[in-house]
Amino acid sequence: MRYAWDAAAGVAQSRPQAPAVVLQGVTKTYPGDVQALRGVSLTVQRGTFLAVMGPSGSGKSTLMHCAAGLDTPTTGHVFVDGTEIGTLSETARTELRRDSVGFVFQSYNLVPSLSIEDNITLPLRLAGRTPDREWVRGLVERVGIGERLSHRPAELSGGQQQRVAIARALAARPAVVFADEPTGALDLRTGREVLALLRDMVDTLGQTVVMVTHDPAAAARADLATVMADGRVVDTFVQATAAELAAGVTKLETE
Amino acid sequence: MLYCAWHMVRRRIAALLAVVCAALGGAAMVTGIGVLADSGWRSHAPVERLDRADVVVSASQSHQPPKPFLPSISLPERVQVPAELADRLARLPGVADTVSDRSFPAAVVTDSGDAAPAADASVNGHGWSSTGLLAAHDVRGSAPAGPREVALDQGTAAAASAEPGDRVTVVAAGRTGTYRVSAVLQVPGSGVYFTDAAAARLAAPGTAAGTQDASGEDSPASADLVAVRAEPGEADRAADEVRQAVADDDLNVTTGAARGDAESPGTTAARSLLPTLASSLTGVTLLVVGFIVAGALSVAVQSQRRELALMRAVGATPRQIRRIVTLQAVLTSAAAAVPGAALGYLLAERFRDLLVWTGMLPSGLPLTYGPLPAVAGVVFLVGVVSVAAWCVAWRTSRMPATEAVAESRSEPRKPSPVRARIGLGLIIGGTALSIGPLLIRSQVGAVGTALAGILAAIGLALVGPVLVGRVGRALSRRLSGSTPAPTWLAVANSHGYAQRAAGAASTLAMAVVFTLTYTLTQTTVVAATSGEVRDATRAQFGVSAPGLGGVPENLADDLRDRPGVEAAAPVTTTTALWPFRVLNETEVESAPAMVLDHEARGVLDLDVRDGNLADLKGRTVAVSADAAKSRDVHVGSTAEFYLGDGAPVSARVVATYGRGLGFGELVLSRDLAVSHTTTGLDQQLYVTTDGSEAAEREVTELVASHPGLALDDDPGAAEKGGVGGVPPELWINIAVLAVLLAYLLVGIANKLVATTAARRTELATLQLVGATPHQVRAMMRREAALLTVAAFVGGLALSVIPLVLLSAGFLGRPVPSGPAWLLPALAAVVAAIAFLSTELPTRRALRTPPTQALTRT
C-alpha cells in the first residue's frame, strides 16, 4: 500500500519544471485608492516551503490571493504553474485553481453537509475527475484521519478538521498549496502537528507550499521566509530560526 | 442592551427584511379583520328618513339564544312595535310629538311602463306623517287627502313626469292602483307618501298575502317603529323619559347615529355578518401570520448565530442574548407593523367593496374606523414576534459560549425524533378528520376537509426535517460516482441541511395544501349544491320584481291562466332559526330557509322522500331528510323554531326531501312565513310551461306588460345568485385565500431569499475549493428543483385523501370538481418562487469575491 502511494507521488513530481508561482511587479489597488500591494516580484520554486510574514495590513493576504489566482493584480503579471492568470476569466481562473492550487484556511472551511471523504474528493468531483482511490487513501492515512472518513466535519476536533483540509488541498495534486494562517485557530501542540504535516508533504512528496503566517515559530518550519510591510517585500530569510524571524519582524514594527 | 440590539438591526437589515415584510403584511391582515369585527359591532346604517327624530323606538331585531354570554342573532325581517305606543310616548314630558312609522313596498310606474327608480323599492311607501321626520324640505302642493292621493319625492315625480294634480299608477304592497299626486317634496332619497290611514292599511301584515286583516282602518295593530320628536332643547330628557317608559318592554331606544339601525333592520342584520366573517378568518390568518413571522425570525437569528455566539463568548448571559434578539425583533416588527396597520384599513375597505359587490353587505353600511383594530393588530404582531423570537433564541442563548462559536460554523443540529412523531400524529389525525364529508353532507361537513389540510400542513412542517433527511440520503445512495458535481452537492445539501431544506419545502407545501383543499372544497361543494339545484328546478322561468319590492299579487294566477303554463309558484328566501340540541346544550343558528307553497311540486323537485309537498298549507314545513334524521322529526311530528322576525312557531312536518344541500334544512309554508317578512310579498315566481315557444311567448308578453318585473329564463342556473345559486361566500373565500396565499408566498420567498443570502460563506467555500460560479448556480438550481418537487409532491400527497373523501361524499366520485388549470398553475407558481428566490440571491452572492465573502462573515 505504502509502495503504491509513493509511486503515485512520483507521478506528481514529474510535471514540467516551470516555477510553481511567479509574480512580476504586482500591484493591487482597492477601491478608495487603498494600495495593498506596491510592486511585488517573487518566484516560488517547486518543492519549496515559503512562509510569508508581516504585520496586519502589510499586504500578505492580498499577496496570497493574487498569487493563488483568487484575485487579479491591478498591474503586473502572475503565473501559476506556468499560466498567466491576469487575462483569464473568473471561470477559467477557477478551473486553473482547481487543477493547480490547493488551499488550507485558518477556519478549515470544510463543507458541513458532506462527509470527510466527500470533502476531500470535492475538488476532484468539481473538476469532473474520478478520484484516484489509492492516492486519496494514502493521503488520509498520512494525515491520520483514516478511520473518520464517514464522519461529518462537525464531529471532528479543530486539528482533525485542519488535517482534512490539508488532505483536500492535496487531493487534486496541485502545483502549489496555499495555507492561510493554518495554525491560527489551533492550540500550540495541534498547530505543531499540522506544521509537521505540511513540512512532511514538502519533504516526501516534493509539494510546493506557500504559507501566510505572523507566527515566527510557524515560519521557521519553512525553507524561505519573506517579510512584508506596507505592500512590499522588505526582507527574505533562508532557513532562519524562530528567534531570527521574530527579531526581523519586531525590527519592522518598531521602525 | 437597546444600543446593542439597534446596532445589530442596522447591520442586519437585509436578514431582517423578511421579518419586516412578515410583520407588515401580518399587521395589515390582522388590522383589516379587526376593522371588520369592529364595524360589525359599532357601525350604523346612515340615518336618512328619520333625520329629525330625536329618539327612535323600535322592536329588538335580535334573538337571544337560551344560554347567556352567547352573541345574539340578528333578525333580518322587520319586527313590529304596538301602534298604541305612539300615543303613550306622546304624553311623556319633553316629547313634542310622535310618529308611528311604517314602510311597505311601493313603486310609481313611469310613462314607459317601468318602475321609477327607488333606493329600496321594498320599503319605498310611507305614511304622510313620516315626512315630518325628513330633513327640512320644500313641499309643492298639499298633503294627500284621501285614500287615492299620494305625495312623491321630486326624483320619482320627475321619472314619472308627474306634477301635483296629475294622475299616476302606483304599485303599492303588490296592488296596482291609480292615484292623484297631491304634492312633490324636495327631499333627497325616494319615497311615495300615502295618507297615514292608507299607509296603515297597505303596511298591515298579511294584507298583501291576500288574507285580509280584520283590524279597522284607523287603529292599526302595529308599526315598524315610533319616532319621537322632543320639545326644543329637551332631547336628552325626552330620551331618558322614553327609556324609562319602555324599560319593561323588549324595545330598543336609539338616538344619534344608532337610529340608522332602527331605520333599516336588513342592513343591521347584514352587519352581523361582519363579526362572523372576521371570526372565521381569524384562525387561519393568525396561523399563517404566526408561521411566516416565526419562519422569518428563525432565518434572521440563524444568520446572526455567530455574532450572538461571540457575544456569549465575551460575557453576555443567555438572558441578555435572548433580550437582544427579542428587542431586535420587536423594534423591527413594531416599525413595520405601524404602516402595516394603516394598510389594514385600506384592506378592510377593499374587502367591504367585495362584500357589497357580491351582495352580502348593503352598500349603505359604512365601516367604522376606530383606532382599536390598529392597536390590536400592532400589539398582536409584536406579541407573536416576541414569543417567536424568544423561542428561536432559546437554543442559541443556552449553548456554552465556546460551543456557540464552534456550532455557528458547522452543521445545524440533528432533527428531533419527538418533533417528527408529533408531526406524524398531526398528519394522521388531520387526515382522519377529513372523513367529515362522508358523514355530514353539508357546508359543516366540508369544514373537516379544510381543517384536515391545515393540520396536515402543520404536521408536515414538524416531520419535515426527518423526512427530507431520509429522502435525501436515499437519493444520494442512488447517485453514482459519475453524477455531475452540482447534482451531487445539491442532494448532499438536502440531507446535510435537512432542517433548512425542510423548512423551505414544508412552508411551500403548506401553500400547496392550502390552495388545493380550500379552493377545491369550495368548488366541489358549490358544484354539488348547484348540481342539486339544477336537477331540482323544473321551472323554465323565474319572474321577480326588482322595481316593485315584491311580486304583485294575482300575478301567479295571471300566469297560470296563460295557455301552455303548467305551474306557477312563489319562491322566497327568508331566515329561520331552528334550535338543535348538542350534548344537552341548545344551539341556535340563523340559516336561510325557502318559502314555498303547495304548488311548489310543479316548479321544483326537492326529491321528496316522505309525505307530500301538496300539504304545504297553513302552519306546516318540509324538512330535509338529513335534518329529519339528526333532529329526530318525521312527517306528522312538530318542528319548533323561530321565524325571520323572531316569532316562535311550531309547525307540522308534512314532507321530507332529499335535496337538502341545495335547498337547506327547512322549507316553510308560505301561509306560515309570509306575514313574518318585511315586505309580505313573494320574491320570485317560478313558472313551468309545456316547453312550447307559444307558451314562452305568453309568459314573456305577460311579464313585459307589467311594470317593474324581470324575467329569468334559466332559474336553475348555477352562476346566478338567489335561490340555491353560487353562494357569494365562494367569492369571499376565494378572495381571502388569494390574500392569505399572496402573504404566504411573499413570506416564503422572503425566507428563501434570506436563507440563500445567508449561505454566502458556504458558497464562497465551494468556490475556493474549485467550484466555478456556473457550478454554484447549477447546484442552487438543482436544490430549487428538489425543493419544488418536494413541496409539490408533499402538498399533493397531503391533499389527496381529504379531497377524495370530500368528492366521494358530495359528488359520489373520487375526483373533486374545480378548474383544471389549478394544479399546473400551482406547480408553476411553486417552481417560480423556488427558482427565483434562490437564483437571484445566489447571483448576488457570487458577485462578491469568495475571499471577501469569507473574511466578512
List key phrases describing it.
heterodimer, A: 255 residues, alpha/beta, Rossmann fold, 6-stranded mixed beta sheet, 4-stranded antiparallel beta sheet, 9 helices, 10 strands, globular, B: 857 residues, alpha+beta, 10-stranded mixed beta sheet, 7-stranded mixed beta sheet
How many domains comprise the coordinates of chain B? 4
Strand count, sense and barrel status of the largest sheet of chain B are:
10 strands, mixed
Helical segment count of chain A: 9
Q: What class, by secondary structure content of chain A?
A: alpha/beta
Estimate the global geometry of chain A from the Cα principal axes: globular
**Rg of chain A, Cα atoms, Å:** 18 Å
Tell me the series of helices and strands of chain A, N- to C-terminal: HEEEHEEHEHHHEHEHEEH
Query: Total strand count of chain A, please?
Result: 10
User: What is the residue-mean pLDDT of chain B, rounded to a whole number?
Assistant: 81
Q: On the 0-100 scale, what is the average pLDDT of chain A?
A: 82
So how many helices of chain B?
A: 28
Draw up the topology in text.
The complex is a heterodimer of chains A (255) and B (857).
Chain A lengths: L1 H12 L7 E10 L3 E11 L4 E5 L6 H8 L7 E6 L2 E2 L5 H11 E4 L11 H11 L6 H11 L14 H14 L4 E5 L7 H18 L2 E5 L3 H4 L4 E6 L2 E7 L3 H13 L1
Parallel strand pairs in A: 3-8, 3-9, 6-7, 7-8
Antiparallel strand pairs in A: 1-2, 1-4, 4-5, 9-10
Helix pairs in contact in A: 1-5, 4-6, 5-6, 6-7
Chain B lengths: L1 H10 L1 H30 L12 E5 L2 E2 L9 E2 L6 E2 L2 H6 L4 E7 L4 E4 L15 E3 L11 E3 L7 E5 H6 L7 E6 L2 E11 L6 E3 L1 H8 L18 E2 L1 E6 L4 H11 L5 E4 L4 H5 L1 H7 L1 H30 L2 H9 L4 H40 L14 H27 L2 H7 L9 H17 L2 H4 L3 H36 L6 H12 L1 H39 L4 E4 L10 H7 L3 E13 L2 E3 L2 E3 L2 E7 L11 E4 L8 E5 H7 L6 E5 L5 E10 L2 H4 L2 E4 H4 L10 E6 L3 H13 L4 E3 L16 H29 L2 H10 L3 H39 L10 H26 L2 H6 L2
Parallel strand pairs in B: 7-12, 9-11, 20-25, 22-24
Antiparallel strand pairs in B: 1-14, 1-15, 2-3, 4-13, 5-14, 6-10, 8-11, 9-12, 10-11, 16-26, 16-27, 17-20, 17-26, 18-19, 21-24, 22-25, 23-24
